[in-house]
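Ticket #430: bound-state structure for nicotinamide-adenine-dinucleotide.
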Amino acid sequence: MRANPMADEMRRFKGTDEKNPFDAMIERFDRAAQLLGLDPDLYAVMRVPSREIKIYIPVKMDSGRIEVFEGYRVQHNFARGPAKGGIRYAPDVTLDEIKALAAWMTWKCAVVNVPFGGAKGGIVCDPRQMSEGELERLTRRYAAELIDFIGPDRDVPAPDMNTDEQTMAWIMDTYSMHARHTVTAIVTGKPVALGGSLGRREATGRGLMFCIDEAIKKFGLTPEKTRVVVQGAGNVGGIGALLMHERGYKVIAISDISGGIYNPKGLDIPKALEYSRKHKTFEGYPDADYITNQELLELECDVLAPCATENQITSQNAHRINCKILAEGANGPTTPKADKVLYEKGIFVIPDILANAGGVTVSYFEWVQDRMGYFWREDEVNERLKDKMVASFNELCQFAEKHKVDTRTAAYMLAIDRVAYDTKMRGIYA
Ligand code: NAD
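RESOLUTION: The complex was predicted; output attached.
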């Protein structure tokens, strides 16, 4: 493995108490399981992943030297169908993080009722320091190592942080070369020309907006009267902000990893995103103040949408969060300790396993279209996505009211209940 002292430090930091994503997932799972009165045998089965795969991936670098990268694929649960989940490339990826993300995929698919279990993959690497050729060789070897474990009926990967349509095309091709025929349904988030779905790129941001559209009604707000703060300007945050801007929402702040911009009168989001694309930063953007990510999270607003990464709202800053609705576009942006503070403050949380489920929903549509060999129009995809997100949002709110619990606990309860039912009906194969 490559020596990278900063990555080691980041991985150590991620592994401590409040910020360990797997511990955060388990804490919420345990609470929901207890409230549901989950059978102890089912509890024991569902609490752990089905399979954890760790691989060492040798890659010939452009220099001619061989480097060995560490990669993972965790398959959390298959009770409801093939496992489904993204692959992330980052220097600070940990197995615990991948385990948490795999479990979240199981709960997310169950919340929106799509017939998949959960999985997640990751490779410890710094894609910004690698050439396209190196990334391609890394991806193909990773896919080849996993060949017996993935497949349209086994486990269907997708993009996540620092992986994209190109990464999926390489995986699809590698898998197809081994299968000796083209297998488009092996991955989702592919280029549209290779069996991808129209609307998939925008699906997570669009699904997030559909949830926010429903949530603001509870506060008597309309898009024009709603001030939105978005952390992250990538696939989820950038596209979410753009769609909300088009819908008439007043997006007053947006950021990337280095910092963000704020204008209480509202930002021209297409212009701001164009600026960030051109300059690789929001710094220097006219018509707005440049602020830190911490300042951005604490801005007074109606909707705060953390769409960047985990552990952004913790016990350290939760009491300074100043929104009515927290819409979690990212996976795991809030720690369980922060949950308690937000609840006491009366903040309405749209939990990640619902708020960002638009991505997996359209991934499901992509998988369906690939298997049919018949492709839908973009407006059909968006309409079906809207149906799913609105129905799931309302179902979740009703469940929370019925059981008198907060929305996050309700989401876990709803998901665990569905997975437990299927696990019980299938029984344990011996
Ligand atoms: P991305 O790489 O496209 O964008 C991430 C954005 O967040 C970038 O603007 C980046 O600069 C910023 N960022 C990264 N680290 C940050 C930090 N520490 N502080 C502030 N900003 C930071 O990634 P994405 O696909 O938009 O994913 C974002 C989150 O949403 C992740 O948690 C991911 O797991 C989750 N998610 C993504 C999808 C999807 O379809 N892309 C679906 C469900 C969940």
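RESOLUTION NOTES: Residues 160-162, 204, 231-237, 255-257, 293, 307-309, 329-331, 356, 359 surround nicotinamide-adenine-dinucleotide (CB under 6 Å).
TICKET STATUS: resolved
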